[in-house]
Design brief:
Layout (H helix, E strand, L loop, with lengths): L1 H11 L15 H6 L7 E6 L2 E7 L4 H8 L16 H19 L3 H9 L9 H18 L3 H10 L4 H13 L3 H11 L5 H18 L4 H14 L1
Antiparallel strand pairs: 1-2
Helix pairs in contact: 4-5, 5-6, 6-8, 6-10, 7-8, 8-9, 9-10, 9-11
């Protein structure tokens, strides 16, 4: 079957691409608009545009070859070219930042990330950790949920308050509400906030994993909003 193969690839690539599973029977209008007339069909989107369409249940090797045309391998990322000693120091700082985040020392974690080499944010592992850290720091500094809801009653388009509310829900492990709130920002006029919310959504999907019911429920919704 194709689905287990794609889920395995999403795990193997560790968040370097977003796997979206679309139920064509449930989303008939969207499927028709996208020209999906045969099943199974896989598509690769780059910056919102269709880069490649794959028909049929091709082999894992075939999918890897296609994905590798659009997704950089770890050796091509910013940490490539470091000496073995520098790479060891890089990994040590990354592990230290993760431990600090897990122990809720978010300020120290942010300081450690700032000492990483230029361009390190292109490393998906760093980008994921930095995004997660930003959500936690935002929640720590944000007003409580009741106050944020009042702010949004007065101004439903307040992007900062929407982001703060999503962060608050995330730290309370309310992933459903966090994703629902972040999806509102995908339609806002602020491109930087739109991009930020997209990174956060991908980070939550990575935390939950591709087979988690919340991930599987929200991926088609996010896709329909983006396209």
């Amino acid at each position: 079957m194709l689905l287990p193969r794609l889920v395995k690839l999403a795990d193997d690539y560790s968040g370097r691409f977003l796997l979206t599973l679309l139920n064509c029977d449930q989303y008939k209008v969207f499927s028709k608009d996208q020209g999906l007339i045969s099943i199974p069909t896989a598509r690769i989107y780059v910056r919102g545009e269709v880069a490649e369409t794959i028909h049929g249940a091709q082999s894992e090797r075939y999918f890897r070859d296609v994905i590798d045309k659009y997704v950089p391998g770890s050796e091509e990322l910013a940490i490539g070219g470091l000496s073995s000693q520098e790479h060891s120091q890089y990994r040590s700082k990354l592990d230290q930042a993760k431990q600090l985040v897990n122990s809720e020392n978010t300020l120290q974690a942010a300081e450690v990330l700032e000492t990483l080499p230029p361009g390190a944010m292109r490393d998906p592992e760093i980008e994921l950790l930095s995004t997660h850290l930003d959500l936690i720091r935002t929640a720590e500094l944000a007003p409580n949920i009741g106050v944020l809801k009042q702010i949004l009653e007065d101004d439903p388009d307040d992007a900062v308050a929407i982001y703060q509310l999503a962060a608050r829900h995330l730290v309370e492990d309310d992933y459903d509400t966090a994703l629902e709130t972040l999806s509102r920002l995908l339609e806002c006029s602020d491109d930087s906030m739109k991009a930020k919310s997209h990174r956060c959504i991908l980070a939550i999907f990575a935390i939950l994993g591709p087979t988690d019911p919340v991930t599987r429920r929200y991926r088609p919704k996010i896709m329909s909003v983006q396209h």
